């Protein structure tokens, strides 16, 4: 059995994976920005902050589609994927909260 077959079958669909990838990209934006510039509390938000906001807000319609499409069809698998999406979003939000950015 390969890893692909062991994955949750609902997790193979783009509406399940895209929000996790967007959260990972938002976290990567934070990591790169913090490693290059450090923690700065400028009154003007920079490009990294706007990119992070777009990545996080852009997930909402995709997650809404996922909920509408998969929760009625496969509630158990759908809730597990939704939990992974939530954890990925929280992981991307944690540095903002911790560093008060």
Describe the structure.
- The protein has 101 residues and is mainly α.
- The protein has one domain.
- The protein is 75% helix and 0% strand.
- The protein contains four helices and no strands.
- It has helices spanning 3-6, 14-37, 47-70, 75-98.
- Helix 2 (14-37) packs antiparallel against helix 3 (47-70) and helix 2 runs parallel beside helix 4 (75-98).
Helix/strand/pairing class, anyone? mainly alpha
**Terminal Cα span:** 44 Å
Low-confidence stretches: none
Proportion in helices = over 70%
Average pLDDT over all residues: 89
The run of helices and strands is HHHH
Counting DSSP H or I runs of 4 or more residues, the number of helices is 4
The largest sheet is: none
Strand content: under 5%
| General shape | elongated
The gyration radius over C-alpha positions equals 16 Å
The counted number of beta strands is: 0
Number of domains: 1
Short recap of the structure:
This protein is mostly helical and 101 residues long. It contains four helices and no strands. It is elongated, with a radius of gyration of 16 Å.
Topology (elements, then pairings):
Blueprint: H1 3-6, H2 14-37, H3 47-70, H4 75-98
Helix pairs in contact: 2-3, 2-4, 3-4
């Amino acid at each position: 059995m390969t890893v692909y077959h062991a994955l949750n079958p609902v997790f193979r669909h783009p509406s399940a994976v895209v929000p996790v990838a967007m959260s990972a990209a938002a976290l990567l934006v934070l990591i790169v920005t913090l490693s290059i510039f450090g923690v700065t509390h400028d009154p003007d938000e920079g490009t990294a902050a706007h990119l992070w906001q777009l990545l996080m807000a852009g997930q909402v319609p995709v997650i809404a589609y996922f909920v509408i499409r998969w929760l009625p069809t496969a509630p158990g698998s759908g809730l597990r994927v939704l939990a992974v999406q939530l954890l990925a979003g929280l992981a991307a939000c944690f540095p903002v909260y911790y560093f008060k950015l």
